[in-house]
Amino acid sequence: MSTHDFLVEIGTEELPPKALKSLAAAFQQGIEAHLNAKEIGFASSKLFAAPRRLALRIEGLQAQGKDSKVEKFGPYVNVAIGSDGKPTKAAEGFARSNGIEFDEVGRITDEKGERLYFAQDIAGATATDELPVAIQSSLNKLPIPKRMRWGSSRIEFVRPVHWIIMLLDNKVIEADILGVKSNYFTKGHRFHANREIAITSPAAYESILKEQGKVLADYEERKAMIRTQVEAEGTKLGGTAVIDEDLLDEVASLNEWPTALAGKFDTEFLQVPAEALVSSMKEHQKYFHVVDKAGKLMPNFITVCNIESKDPQQVIEGNEKVIRPRLSDAKFFWDTDRKKTLESRFEKLDTVLWVQKLGTLKDKSERLMKLAAQIASAMGGDVTLAERAAKLAKTDLLSDMVYEFTDLQGLAGSYYAQHDGEHAEVCAAMNEQYMPAFSGDDLPTTVTGTALALADRLDSLVGLFGIGQIPTGGKDPFALRRASLGVLRLLVEKQINIDLSDLIDWAIDNNWPTELKTESKSKLVEYMLDRFSAMYQDQNIPTVVFQAVRAKGITQPLDVNKRVQAVYEFSKLDSAEALAAANKRVSNILAKNDAFIDAPQINEALLQEDAEKELANALSEKAKEATPLFEQGQYAEYLTSLTTLRGCIDNFFDNVMVMADDEAVKQNRLALLNQLRNVFLKVADISTL
User: Fold this and answer.
1) pLDDT (tens digit, 9 = 90+) per residue, 138-185?
2) pTM (global) more than 0.85
3) Beta strand pairing status for 113-122 and 171-172?
4) Cβ(413)–Cβ(391) under 8 Å?
5) What is the reported pLDDT for 600?
6) Which of 125, 279, 526, 611 is disulfide-compatible with 655, CB 3.0–4.6 A?
7) Cβ(259)–Cβ(251) under 8 Å?
8) What is the C-alpha separation between 219 and 227, in angstroms, rounded?
9) Can you tell me the distance from the alpha carbon of 424 to that of 223, in angstroms, rounded to the nearest whole number?
C-alpha cells in the first residue's frame, strides 16, 4: 500500500505560553488516537509548537485503513421460516436491519442448527476522509479551561484562528476547520516576515519557516537554542546564568525567533534579599538571573527577545529601564517592612479570615503555638522556640513584600526575623514551615522548623476534615493530599517516632471551636496513611507490598515505612513466593474453620506425624532466635530469618492431613498453623503478596 506524508498547522494569535506544551501534546495525541481507531497506519509523527502555531507532521501515512468484515447472525430457520415457507416477521426484520432483501440473506449452520446469516466486507477508512475529522476531534478535546470567540462567529477556541494548512504530500486536503478553509499558506514571524509563505511539502515545513519566515517551529530546538544563548551570555558576564526549567519552557513558548541579550541593574538593589530580586525578574519580566562563582547574585539579567535587532543596545537599554521600577518596588517593600517587627503584626492577624468556620490567621497561629510546642517536646526540641516560631509564622503574610511577591511567604519572614534579632532556629523555621512544598523538595533542617511544619499541616487537615472539606476525585482545593504526603515524609525521613493517631489527637484537642466534629478522626487517619501509596509508587515498590503492611492497621508512619521496606526486600528473595503462597493457604484453612486464635496453644502430646513435630520444633526455635530482631525493629532481618522454615512448611503440607478425623488432633494442627501464620504476621500479612 502506498504511503504519504501529511502536515497540519493551526495558525492562531499568540497562544498562552504556560499552556503551549500541553496543548501541543494533546493535539498530537488526539490525531494519533483517531487514526489508530480507524486502523490507518503511519510510520512516525513529529510535533511542532510555537507562539502562533500548533503543527503536526505525519510520515509514512497509509492512504487507507484495514478492510474489515462484518458478520451478523439472525434467527434460526425454524423461527425465520413459517409453515407456509414464507419468511416470518423476525426474518424480514433481520434483512431490513442489514439494508437488504430477504432473498439476499444467507444461511449458516452451527451446533444448534441452521440460521440466517449476513456478511459484509467493509473497505478501510481513507486518510483523506478521516484526517479532517481527526483534527477537528482533537481540537475539540484540547485541555482549554476557557475558550474564546472572535468576531461575529460562534466558533470557540483558545485563541482566534487565522489560517489552516492541511497538506497531503503536495496537495491540499480541502476542509473547514474552526471556520477557516484549509490551504498551503502559513505566516512567518510577526515582525521579521509577517506575510503568507507557501509550504510546498510536509518535509519542507521546518526549513521554509526557518529560512523564509524567521520561525523556529520545533519547540525542543528553540528551547535548546535559548539555553545555549543564555548560558553563553552568562559566561560573557563572568558568571553563571541560572536556568529555571519552568521559566525556560515559558520563554520558549513566547518566542519564535529567540535572541538572548544581557543587561544590568544598579548594585544598590543587591541590598535586597536575592530571592526578592530573582522573583521580580523571573515572574514579571521573564528574565534569567546570573550568579558569581560564590553563588551570589550579580547585578545582571538575561532577557530573550523575539526579534533579531539591528541595534541590540537599544533593546537592552529598554529592558534596563523596565526592570528598574520593578526592583525599586522590591527595595521599597524591603525597607518599609523592616520598620515594623514581625511580632507587631501578630494582633492584626485577627483581621484575616483563614477559612470560614475555622477562624482567623490569629486563631490558627494560637493553635500552632500549642501544637508545635507539643510536637517539639515529643521530639526533644526546645518548646519555647517552637512556640515563638509558631506565633510569628504567619505574620509575614501581612508584609508588603509577600503581598507583592506571594512566592516569598516564609522566606521573607525568615529575613525579617533575622532583622528583628530572633533566635536562629526561629528564623529558619519561618521558611521551613512550608517544607516540603512539593514532591522531592527539601525538608526542614531544624527541630523547630520540623515541629512547625508538622503542626501547620496537621492543624489544616484536622480542621478541614472536621468541617467536611474532604478531597473528592480530582478536587482538592486546600491541597490536603500534598499536606498529608508532607506529614508522612517528615515523620519517615526525619525518623520521628510519633504515632499519627496521637498527632491527630493533639491537633483535635487544641482549642478548636466546639462545633467541630471529631468523629472524622478515623477517616483522616485512613486518608493520610493511604497517601503512602503515592510515595511508594515513586520508589517503584509494588502496591501489594504496602497493602501487606497496611493490613496490620499500624498508624505509626515510621514503623509502617520500616515494615514496607523490609517486606519489599523479602519479596525479592527466592523463597518469598512459596512462603507467601503457604501463608495464603494457611489463612484460607483457618478462615474456613473459624480458627483464628490470638495466642494459639499447641499440645505436644497430640503431635503425631514427624512433619508436624518438625514444624512445631522449628517454630519454637525460630521464635527464640528471631523475636529479638522483631523487637529491635530489624524487620528485614526478621523476615529473612524466617525463610529457613520453608522446608518444614512444604514437608508439613506434603505429609500431614490438617482435617484429621480426631477433633482434638485437628484443632491442634489448626493451632500449629495459627502459630505459623502469626510468626509471619508480626511484620505484615505476606499472604497478600
Assistant:
1) 999 999 988 999 988 889 999 999 999 999 999 999 999 999 999 999
2) no
3) unpaired
4) no
5) 61
6) 611
7) no
8) 12
9) 41
The alpha helices in 65-168, defined as continuous H runs, are 77-80, 89-97, 127-140
Query: Which pLDDT value is given to residue 597?
Result: 61
Q: Which of 1.20.120, 1.10.3470, 3.60.21, 1.10.730 would CATH assign to domain 563-688?
A: 1.10.730
Q: Which of 481-495, 511-525, 612-626 has the lowest mean pLDDT?
A: 511-525
How far is 115 from 95, CA to CA, in rounded Å?
13
Question: Which among 208, 153, 145 is positioned nearest to 179, based on CA atoms?
Answer: 153
291 forms bridges with which residues in the sheet?
Answer: 240, 297
Q: What is the predicted pLDDT for the residue at 596?
A: 64
Band of the pLDDT at 515, cuts 50, 70, 90? low
Tell me which fold the domain 343-540 belongs to: Hypothetical protein af1432 (1.10.3210)
Sequence spans of domains, the chain: 3-65+126-213, 71-121, 219-337, 343-540, 563-688
pLDDT value of position 519: 66
- HSE-up of 501 (CA within 13 Å, CB side)? 7
Q: Is 531 left (phi over 0), alpha (psi -120 to 50) or beta?
A: alpha
Q: What is the mean pLDDT of residues 607-626?
A: 86
Mean pLDDT of the chain: 92
Can you identify the CATH homologous superfamily of domain 3-65+126-213?
ACT domain (3.30.70.260)
DSSP string, 389-446: HHHHTTGGGGSHHHHH-GGGTTHHHHHHHHHTT--HHHHHHHHHTT-S-STT----SS
Closest CA to 102 of 88, 113, 114: 88
Q: In one letter, which amino acid is 87?
A: P
- Taking alpha carbons only, the member of 338, 404, 393 closest to residue 364 is 393
**Preceding amide of 16 cis, omega within 30:** no
Q: What is the largest CA-CA distance in the chain?
A: 107
Q: What are the cell numbers at 450? A: 520540623
